[in-house]
Amino acid sequence: MEQIIIDEIDIRLLDQLQRDASLSNQALAQRVHVSPPTCLRRVKRLVDAGLIERQIAILSADRLAPVLGFGLTAIVEITLDRQDADQLAAFEARVVLDEAVQQCYRVSPGPDFCLIVAAANMPGYLTLAQRLFTSDANVRNVKTFFSIKRSKFEPLLPLVLTKQT
Q1: CB 121 within 8 A of CB 130
Q2: What is the mean pLDDT of the chain?
Q3: Neighbour-count burial of 31, counting CB atoms closer than 10 A to its CB (0-12 exposed, 13-18 middle, 19+ buried)
Q4: 19-71 pLDDT, tens digit each
Q5: Domain spans of the chain?
Q6: 126 Rama sector, left if φ>0, alpha if ψ -120 to 50, beta otherwise
Q7: Which of 143, 136, 137, 87 is nearest to 115 (CA)?
Q8: For 110-155, what is each residue's pLDDT tens digit?
Q9: Domain 8-48 part of CATH 1.10.10.10
Q10: For the range 1-4, what are the long-range contacts, defined as Cβ-Cβ under 8 Å and sequence gap of 24 or more?
Q11: If you classify domain 61-146 with CATH, what class do you get?
Q12: Is the model's pLDDT at 165 over the cut of 50?
């Protein structure tokens, strides 16, 4: 993978975009103190380099709950029976394709994976668990924690420029 060189302006652009990606190019340029053409060119370069994967809207689960129902958020620890590279990759590839899986982490030590999953209700979670875990003969252990309150959800990455060689 090719290393991209970024500077303080790029860091400021990334910081502003991760806080509010709906800013117009003009507003973004003003916030980071560059011209609009420079801003547009730099953002395109950051997207092309893969530093900006996509732009999305973060929905308010609490405000949608009266309309859609509260749903369940589960944190699931998965331990596989066989942990060779192929088995780990196969499980990971299968679960990341499932829309119910919001986040997937390969972790160590302890379980092999931690997943954050969403389900409409407990029967929905049971269906999800059967689809993703019970039907996989390589899944040895599943430990699920159900969220009773989300105290914080923040997708911001800390952006600190380190010396690049």
Answers
A1: no
A2: 93
A3: middle
A4: 999 999 999 999 999 999 999 999 999 999 999 999 999 888 888 888 888 78
A5: 8-48, 61-146
A6: alpha
A7: 143
A8: 999 999 999 999 999 999 999 999 999 999 999 999 999 888 988 8
A9: yes
A10: 3/164, 4/49, 4/51
A11: alpha beta
A12: no
Instruction: Please state, in angstroms and as integers, the Cα–Cα distance from residue 74 to each residue in 68, 108, 127, following that order.
Output: 17, 20, 13
Residue 24 identity: S
CA-closest candidate to residue 78, choices 149, 143, 26, 33: 143
Chain position carrying tokens 């302890």: 110
CA distances from 133 to 3, 70, 124, 136, 154 (A): 37, 24, 14, 5, 28
Tokens of 12: 């400021």
Token pair recorded at residue 132: 């993703």
Q: 91 and 78 in contact (C-beta within 8 Å)?
A: yes
Q: What is the pTM of this model?
A: 0.83
Closest by CA position to 132, among listed 110, 164, 101? 101
Distance (Å, rounded) from C-alpha 83 to C-alpha 112? Answer: 8
Are the CB atoms for 154 and 116 separated by under 8 Å?
A: no
For residues 61 and 101, what is the distance between their CA atoms, to the nearest angstrom? 16
